[in-house]
Write a structure and sequence with these properties.
This protein is mainly beta. It contains one helix and eleven strands, in the order H-E-E-E-E-E-E-E-E-E-E-E.
Length: 175
């Protein structure tokens, strides 16, 4: 199934209209990725980290590396996506998702989709902190082997670390 991706400009407009971002000077920035390899060829284009909201209510997302994006509300039926990127200071990036506005700053329960680009691979992980915001709803992260699927919205015990090739898209779906 091919997802119909929303343009980043639409998401920036949504974020700019959200009360939490009015009069904010913060902006979502996604550093360009160097696609020139050392052998003079062109490296494959990186895939996308996609967060799909199939819940009836909005969810709230922040892209966190060495800086924190503005709060990005993702309405029910919509999604957010960003190209996999390597953060020069932290190495990895985390997409932090809550069910409440301003949740990142109020210690609300968060689901954290973390990834790190290493060469031609993307190492990724899914976890909850401060509680389980999607308890009672399904949470899946695909493709993953073994599959990451929390049918009750609560992570199982054990590691959720996986790896895919840099060109793969990863889709985290709520509800």
């Amino acid at each position: 199934m091919k997802l119909n991706l929303l343009p980043l400009s639409f998401l920036a407009t949504l974020a700019a209209c959200h009360p939490s971002t009015k009069n904010s000077t913060a902006a979502i920035t996604h550093p360009s990725i160097n696609t020139t390899s050392t052998n003079g060829g062109t490296a494959p284009s990186p895939g996308l980290a996609i967060v799909q909201n199939n819940c009836a209510e909005p969810i709230y997302l922040w892209s966190v590396g060495s800086s924190v994006s503005v709060e990005i509300p993702v309405p029910g039926g919509a999604h957010y996506s960003e190209t996999f990127r390597h953060d020069q200071k932290t190495g990895g990036v985390s997409l932090k998702v809550t069910r409440v506005a301003h949740g990142l700053y109020s210690s609300a329960p968060q689901t954290v989709f973390a990834y790190n680009v290493v060469g031609d691979s993307v190492w990724y992980d899914l976890s909850d902190v401060f509680g389980d915001p999607f308890k009672g709803s399904s949470v899946t992260l695909l493709p993953s082997e073994p599959v990451i699927r929390w049918s009750d919205g609560v992570p199982p015990v054990g590691s959720m670390v996986r790896v895919v090739g840099i060109t793969e898209d990863l889709t985290l779906t709520f509800c």
